[in-house]
Amino acid sequence: MSLIIKDINNDSILDYDVFSRNFEVYKIMSRLPLEDVREILLKSSRCVYNPNLVNRSQKYKQIMQRIKETVPQIEMSKELISKWANYRNKMMLDVILAVLYADIDEYKGAIEDPNNFLKRKSNNIFIYPHYGSYMSIIPIMAANKIDITILMDKSLVSVWEHLLENTSFSQRIHLYGIQDFNTLHKALKRVKCGSNLIMFPEFTLGKKPKLTGEFLNQNVYVPSGPARLACQNSIPLVPLKLKKLNNRKLPNIVLGDDLASQSEKQTITEISLNTMSSMDDIVKKDPSKWWGWQIFIDYMLS
Q1: Neighbouring C-alpha atoms within 13 Å toward the C-beta of 2
Q2: Integer angstrom CA distances of residue 130 from 167, 186, 207, 230
Q3: Could you give the CA distance from residue 238 to residue 204 in angstroms, rounded to a whole number?
Q4: How far apart are CA 91 and CA 208, in angstroms?
Q5: What pLDDT was estimated at residue 180?
Q6: Closest by CA position to 26, among listed 59, 11, 4, 52
Q7: Best label site of 20, 98, 111, 187, fewest CB within 10 Å?
Q8: Which pLDDT value is given to residue 10?
């Protein structure tokens, strides 16, 4: 098989824009087993010296070095700094694989739903941190016939629309740019009509919250938006986990317990802190796979 990736210039084969411009080429590659394409993409991303990618890694290391100097109480080892730079350069790998393979039964990740949230008449708010291949949740859920609504950076909406337009599950994915006027109202309206809202809630780039709590052993601002939405609309607030079984399949998605259960009679503050705690539990396992270091000082530290 001989394939040519066009217009790569100084980008990486794992970049959003390269994948988007060459989607048909990547789709042809998906005729191969998933683990083979994973290896091909990994090797291709590092086989040629690319000054642009070297500069990217250096920029990522500088971000971590700034955190180390600004917040010396955070344990910022050379290994963590190096691993995070590597993660940032390759974080799209599993997302690309999810888009390519999510609708192929042999590779499809399953949904584990012990509490049967997906069988209830009410819809859900699903939450997960900006961790690992967090965007792979989108194609995996949609390929499992779950209608989802996602709030994301406005600049990424058109990119994702293009990536998903030729997939069999695109009609179950509804994207909204968070900078759009009245976006939340439109997204909630869709959720009330049968969709499920996915949020990545460990920080907000908008107005700083009044509530603070602990995250990665630091005092940070805690968003209350997800808890408020769940309580005001009587919608379950369900944390997700990605469970990777092996390199031959996409990860399963595990649905946890409702953090906003009405039977518990919790306040929005309590639910918000529990939400942050559930995000912290995931990120602490390997902080080098957390995207949020890039905005940690400017938006999260209280």
Answers
A1: 0
A2: 24, 23, 19, 20
A3: 19
A4: 27
A5: 62
A6: 4
A7: 20
A8: 61
* 61 close to 82: Cβ distance less than 8 angstroms: yes
Q: Which residues contact 205 (CB under 8 A, 6 or more apart)?
A: 178, 295, 299
Contact of 256 with 239, CB cutoff 8 Å: yes
Task: Give the DSSP H/E element, type plus range, for residue 254.
Answer: strand 252-255
Stretches where the chain sits below pLDDT 50 are 2
Q: CA-CA distance, 33 to 100, in Å (whole number)?
A: 11
CA 12 to chain centre: 20
Predicted confidence at residue 8, as pLDDT, reads 57
Q: Is 116 left (phi over 0), alpha (psi -120 to 50) or beta?
A: left
Q: What is the pLDDT of residues 81-139, one digit of tens each?
A: 999 999 998 999 999 999 999 999 999 999 999 999 888 756 899 999 999 999 999 99
Q: Give yes or no for a contact between 35 and 177, defined as CB atoms under 8 angstroms apart.
A: no
The pLDDT value recorded for residue 287 is 96
Helix (H) or strand (E) holding 148: strand 148-152
pLDDT of residue 247: 79
Mutual angle of helices 78-90 and 34-46, in 10-degree steps: 110
Q: Which of 184, 179, 97, 160 is nearest to 133 (CA)?
A: 97
C-beta separation of 102 from 143 below 8 A: yes
CB 230 within 8 A of CB 260: yes
Residue 150, both tokens: 């996602």
Nearest CA to 240 among 274, 279, 206? 279
- Burial call 48-62: b when 16+ CB within 10 Å, e when fewer: eebeebeebeeebbe
Can you tell me whether residue 290 is helix, strand or coil?
A: strand
**What whole-number distance in Å separates Cα of residue 132 and Cα of residue 157?**
20
The single-letter code of the amino acid at 42 is L
Stated pTM of the model: 0.91
pLDDT of residue 268: 95
